[in-house]
Amino acid sequence: MIYSIIPNEVIFSVLKSDESFKLEEVEYRGCLLQIAVDRDKGASIQRIISTDPRDYLNQELQPGTIFSMEKINRF
Amino acid sequence: MNNETIPKECNKEQDPVTESIKEFGQMPLPKDNDRNKQRIHCLTIIGQIEGHIALPPQNKTTKYEHVIPQLVAIRDNDEIDGVILVLNTVGGDVEAGLAIAEMIASLGKPTVSLVLGGGHSIGVPLAVSAKYSFIASSATMTIHPVRMSGTVIGVPQTFEYFDKMQERIVDFVSRKSKISQQRFKELMLDTGKLAKDVGTIVIGEEAVKEKLIDEVGGLDDALKKLYALIEEDKKSKEDKK
Q: pTM to 2 decimals?
């Protein structure tokens, strides 16, 4: 049961499938990341899922950072 | 931790530092050597609270399968002294929201919540679940009845079911904040405030006046309060020893 100020029709409306919405979750050095995968360009970090404030200061994990696909495949 | 052990620990930490400089020519990250400082974690609750149904990808969501294990890890880790909960949510799944709220309320460590932007619908129980709560003066909270969706059978039992769902929320909020059940229900069922809906929007100071939230404030206030709660918590633990 949804209890939200956003109407259910809006929450469940299906927009045109946009590639940029396709997010995957990977774990990198003990930190859960949400990444947008682009087969050519690699994967860019969209969001860090962590409660440790220090993870957000980690240079390697800054949102927008692009991983090469090879690196992703090794996860 | 008592004061006598600190110098010893600092000495211990010296060795790996010099070793790291010698061996790798670099300083190790200043991670664990400053145990004097209180260590806090930050839990952000954003967008929709996602529960049993996976929401379409255009929704920004906070998923309980992420948050619940994180809270367990925080409880289990002695290095973490307290948690700040930052909310900017439009509501979401009742069960997931209440589950996370109950987890926070029973964490056993100091917690402070800060409502920024919005803490609507199921965000209300989440905001009050912390030991102490703050709201930014521009932040809003919408309190409204649980709405119907899907197939609704026109029998008295349907009303009863919705009433029970609502009761769970009202009960939790009145238990964890200073607002009375009756007053919270009044706000929830008010017909004069929202243009197209039943309910109330409270903004910053109003939430404090309604005794829903403890104080109006920002990040600095919230962190100062959290550090103070951690100190109190440590003292009470030492006294018990």
A: 0.83
